[in-house]
Amino acid sequence: MDSVIGIIYAICRGFVDSLKGTIVLFYMDKQINEKLVEKTSNRAELRKKDVVMSSPSKHKQRESKVLRRTLQCCALNGGVFWASILIFDFGLLPFVKYLLTVIFGHSPGMGLTVWSWIQPFLSLTFGTIWVLPLFLLSRIVNSLWFQDIADSAYRYRQGRPLLLSSVSKLIADTLFSVLVQALFLGQGMLVSKVPLPPLGDILALVHMCLLYALYAFEYKWFNMGWELHRRLTFIEGNWPYFLGFGMPLAVLTQMPNSYFVSGCVFSILFPLFIVSGNEAEPVTGVCDCQLKLFSPVIAIANTLFNKTIGRVNKR
């Protein structure tokens, strides 16, 4: 009974902690920059003759960009990308359909026939020329902005990042992490096809909750020098907390029917979860049973990596 209560508490605690970034975001920048100003002033007093230490340009480079980057994510993904999709779907297409109705008013059947050809053509053209390129560009820009947010938030709370011991290990960890996350996403899509609809939907939701929690905490753990196996083991061992933490983002991103709109929702909200993950202290030790959902994809990723590296070494 105590174990069940502990699991429920950890899930609720994770859910609440995931929302704290919304509050922290608005005072974090101010506190970070106040600390930087105070630190710079103290150094200037101790080393008045040191030009480099008192340089205003250096101070400017270290200013926090958490709030600015978050607003930029909202502007790009919501104000440009999502808005353009809405204008096309609920503005341009209905207007073209109305024009065809006016033009072919005497022959409604002809108007519907023309519309059945024009609508797919316009949608395909819009998706190819605008949506797909902008989506790819936003993924790249968002990743850079997410990193800025994570680094500023980590320095505010933890100090200087530790990172991994070598460049080669860092690159290998990053590539392996991307592969594991991609395979885990595929695993989540696969379990959603379970013949029992409620069970498949629940399993898919659990996968997305844990994956989004990993996304949010990975920046912090990476800066702490945690390798991938440690990050995944920690999530599997304390899954109730991370299930609750990733739940708001998983539910909100699954509500839109469009993959691109879902991506917009994720990119708008994810900076808040990065901040929340950086501030959070996960609830641990409430469940003795590990949820080893990452184990299958780790085994597959290891096999792929070993085969690839083996071939390279043979050459």
UniProtKB/TrEMBL annotation:
Transmembrane segments: 74-96, 116-137, 170-190, 202-222, 234-252, 258-275
Keyword annotations from UniProtKB, A to Z: Membrane, Transmembrane, Transmembrane helix
Principal place of residence: membrane
Pfam families cross-referenced by the UniProt entry: EI24
Topology with respect to the bilayer: Multi-pass membrane protein
Localisation per UniProt entry: Membrane
GO cellular-component term (any): endoplasmic reticulum
Superkingdom field: Eukaryota
Keyword presence, Transmembrane: yes
GO biological process, one term: macroautophagy
Family of the protein in this entry: Belongs to the EI24 family.
Name this protein carries in UniProt: Etoposide-induced protein 2.4 homolog
Natural source organism: Atta cephalotes (Leafcutter ant)
Gene from which this protein is expressed: 105627278
